Amino acid sequence: MLSQRTKLVSPTISLQGNCTQLARLSGTEASLLADPEMRELILPVLRNDYRAIESYHHDPRAAGCAPVLSCPIVVIIDDSDPQTDVADTQAWCTHTTGRFELITFSGGHFFINDHTAAVTALVADRMATAASLKVPR
Prior knowledge:
The protein is mainly alpha-helical. Helix content is 42%, strand content 9%. The chain is built from five helices and two strands, in the order αααβαβα. The longest helix is centred in the first third of the chain and has 20 residues, at 36-55. The protein starts with 14 loop residues before the first helix and ends in a 5-residue tail after the last helix.
């Protein structure tokens, strides 16, 4: 789900504009963004990722699309991420008939850097729980 907030990297804005947005999120070292060779490596990948995010729309009724899932969905976000918010993220619950869980951390867009152990433990726990579920086929 792409938030209606300002997009992280846009395929249509300037190189400087993309670098400014990345720096604002505090997850990319300033020295990397200042290095022209690194920018040439980083920005095309990010632009393509966001081009895919902006253009993809899942419609389970469309031909060839998967139906709504029956497995649990766990979404982990930051409570102050400028790229998404709790209300936008809550929409993921429509993609499963299984359990939906929304877990928030603090720390900005790259919250995982400050909460690596907690996120790892959470993912491991939910994976173990999911592995023990009997999933209908």
